[in-house]
Design goal:
GO terms for molecular function: beta-N-acetylhexosaminidase activity. One of its GO terms (cellular component) is membrane. Keywords: Glycosidase, Hydrolase. The chain is an alpha/beta fold. It contains eleven helices and 17 strands. The protein has a seven-stranded mixed sheet, covered by helices on one side. Strands 8-9-16-17 form a four-stranded parallel sheet. A two-stranded antiparallel ribbon has the order 10-11. β8, α4 and β9 form a beta-alpha-beta unit. The chain starts with a helix and ends with a helix. About 5% of the residues have low confidence.
Amino acid sequence: MPFNTSLVFIVFISLFLSCSKEIVEPLTPQIIPKPLSQTIKEGHFTITNNTGLDFNEDFSVAGNFLKDFIESGSSISLKSGSSILIEKDETIQGLEGYSLDVFLGKIIIKAKTDVGAFYAVQSLRQLLPISLENNTFTGKQITVQSISITDKPQFSYRGMHLDVVRHMFSVAFIKKYIDALAMLKMNTFHWHLTDDQGWRIEIKKYPKLQEVAAFRNQTLIEHFSAEPQRFDSKKYGGFYSQEQIKEVVAYAQNRFITVIPEIEMPGHAQAAIAAYPELGCTKEALQVAETWGVFEDIFCAGSENTFTFLQDVLDEVIPLFPGKYIHIGGDEAPKTHWKACDACQQRIEDNKLKDEHELQSCFMVEC
């Protein structure tokens, strides 16, 4: 009997269709972090020039962020009205919790606090077209999938770290970085400002930190383990002025993000010692580090000059950052020079310490 390819094709298609769903369900929006509860509904809400936004002063950060985000990313201008409503609800769980309901004719956000409402806006932001993020949206209206969300953070500390020493980023980039943190409902920006390869924060009492420590003569190309090592022969660096620091901190605060600066000690200090050799045990002239890795030149724990310097630095740093914490590093501090340093050994003896490790503990308490 001849092989009927047409019949086989028809049977295959029939089997394929019989295995697929009769009704295609709408895709679940991929909101990050995943909300505690979300339910997709039929239909959508449409944002146009006729859409109104209503919020009171208790929710000014959340409300203004939503208004600015839509208007800066599109040609749509929101007017006063209650098509999109942000309102207080004391029954919402947690100070950072919220509910977000997108109906056919209305969007309602409920929260106890402005930060909760702000996180609701970030979830709503992720339901909007991605082209709003880079100002390429050209439509006359924005459609939003109907959905019901109830959410609150699982962790109280939600943070990201940015190293601006090995590679320095512009203030504009850092603001974009903070915007990304805000969209993901993170509340902490850990800013790594000092290390062996550079010093990135202005300290007015010590100008050589800006003149010397902020710049390295060249930078290693490729991985540290590559042989032979190659360098780019380009001077590299820079620093953030205290006014720029204030600008970044204010920008973060307006997105409910606390900035934690990191000022490394006693290790990762070669850039600072290159500017002020008296801060090291050997007092030798050094270069700002041009490679990666761990370096033996760390702040001298036996010198009062070190503690005066670090206290002066912190006295300028602390007022710039209104959060509770300043990170002072403490990692990767080789004790090679401390073991050979008469002043460090004298401090160990004077304080009845066991060894250089206890000296580091003493060092951190002193600072």
